[in-house]
Write a structure and sequence with these properties.
The chain has helices spanning about 5-10, 15-25, 45-50, 55-60, 70-85, 100-110, 125-135, 150-160, 185-195, 220-225, 255-270, 275-285, 290-315, 340-350, 380-399; strands spanning about 30, 90-95, 115-120, 135-145, 145-150, 165-170, 200-205, 230-235, 250-255, 320, 330-335, 350-355, 355, 370-375. By secondary structure, the chain is of the alpha/beta class. The protein has an eight-stranded mixed beta sheet with strand order 2-9-8-7-6-3-4-5, sandwiched between helices. A four-stranded antiparallel beta sheet has the order 10-11-14-13.
């Protein structure tokens, strides 16, 4: 018998994985995957970029690179971050294998078993998995329509300050809740963290995907408006604005923190994929991002509208949902006591899937909700899929 480490013993093989397997059947109308639609990837741009690389750059692209990142990409990414108002002075950048690795590295660097992380509830499943894998204790603070519940955040910060190491927030088109923080809530959070030693992880993979230009100011990162005394690690990703298969994200944080993170990354993968970094540098520096985003935004806006219209048409009384202004997700809530797994079983039997709410509950318990991703589903199937789920909900509520 092999004997696993206590960390591995702590990993949970989840019910979610079983359900996701069912959802991946191609005959199912799936709202489960939080991913871009394949037909939207900028493959012609990738072809053009690759074909125009010089021989020496192609060689460099197949070579190892520095752990912190491919230097030209660091420069072009800095330019992009500056354009979004982010501060670069006294800060360092680390290119990571997706935002997921940035979260994992920060957790490794800050969390000893038993340390506490404050998260929103619901929260991104991948971040919860990272926190759990380092055996953090989680404080789950409910999300409201305009951000984290500020009174409960304050209470928790006051009550458990010595154990709290990190606060993890995803303020822009939240996964799974679909909401965006108001200016007011961002300011309140920053005021509350000011003068405290806790690190703020600001996770922002979706901020660029607003549906309406008028909402752009709301996507201004907290790190862009905070004073430098709050240690904020701003995490971004190319997954939703280029392609998740590149596995590229970044971490922008205080120099001393990023230096530790670089050491941690060194032992994980030595460097992020150089080929991806070369392509992404050319994509940024060649001015390809802005036109691509202009192409994506109306498509996701249309998919969201189709989903919201179908929900309006099909859902019974007592069901509520968020109305996203960007990103990929709608969060649907049923009356307390309703069980999303029962709804899932009925729904999958008829050919539609989603992710059950307990996957996003930091304590894995609350299950009267579900995440509906509109990003991946062909437009002509969205209405039918919602109809199936609505029928499954009606049946489950009648039982
Ligand atoms: C909120 C959030 N953070 C991080 C990630 C991970 O992104 P990446 O694919 O860059 O690892 C995701 C992916 O869905 C996400 O939704």
């Amino acid at each position: 018998m092999v004997e696993y480490s206590s960390n591995a013993r702590n990993m949970r093989s989840s019910e979610i994985r079983r359900l996701m397997k069912l959802a991946s059947d191609p005959s199912v109308i799936s709202f489960a995957g939080g991913m871009p639609a394949n037909d939207l990837f900028p493959i012609e741009i990738v072809d053009e970029i690759y074909n125009n690389l010089s021989k020496s750059v192609k060689q460099a692209a197949l070579q190892y690179g520095p752990t912190y990142g491919y230097p030209p990409l660091i420069d072009s990414l800095k330019e992009y971050l500056r354009s979004r108002g982010l501060p670069l002075e006294g800060q360092s950048l680390l290119i990571t294998a997706g935002a997921q690795q940035a979260i994992n590295i920060l957790t490794k660097v800050f969390i000893d078993p038993g340390d506490r992380v404050i998260t929103e509830s619901p929260a991104f499943i991948g971040a919860l998995a990272a926190f759990n894998s380092y055996r953090a204790n989680l404080s789950a603070i409910p999300l409201e329509d305009d951000g984290i519940n500020i009174d409960l955040l304050e209470k928790e910060l006051d009550a458990r300050s010595p154990q709290i190491k990190m606060v993890y927030l995803s303020p822009y088109f939240h996964n799974p809740a679909g909401i965006i923080y108001s200016e007011q809530r961002k300011k309140e959070v920053l005021e509350m963290l000011s003068g405290r030693p806790h690190v703020l992880l600001e996770d922002d993979p979706y901020g660029e995907l607003y549906f309406d230009e008028a909402d752009k100011p709301l996507t201004r990162p907290m790190k862009a408006i905070a004073d430098a005394s709050i240690p904020i690690c701003y995490i971004g990703s190319f997954a939703k604005i280029f392609g998740p298969g590149l596995r590229l994200g970044w971490l922008l944080g205080p120099e001393s923190i990023v230096e530790k993170c670089e050491m941690a990354k060194q032992s994980m993968d030595a460097c992020s994929a150089t080929l991806s970094q070369v392509l992404t540098h050319e994509y940024l520096s060649g001015g390809k991002l802005a036109p691509y985003l202009s192409r994506l935004r109306p498509v996701y806006a249309r998919r969201a509208r189709l989903m919201l219209d179908a929900l309006e048409r099909c859902m019974p009384d007592g069901i509520t949902w968020t109305r996203p202004r960007g990103g990929f997700y709608v969060w649907l809530s049923m009356p307390s006591g309703a069980d999303a797994t029962e709804v899932f079983n009925r729904s999958i039997a008829r050919g539609a899937a989603f992710v059950i709410g307990s996957a996003f509950d930091p304590h894995g318990v609350n299950n009267n909700s579900m995440r509906l991703a509109f990003s991946f589903t062909p437009e002509e199937k969205i209405g039918k899929g919602i109809e199936i789920i609505a029928d499954a909900i009606k049946e489950t509520m009648q039982d």
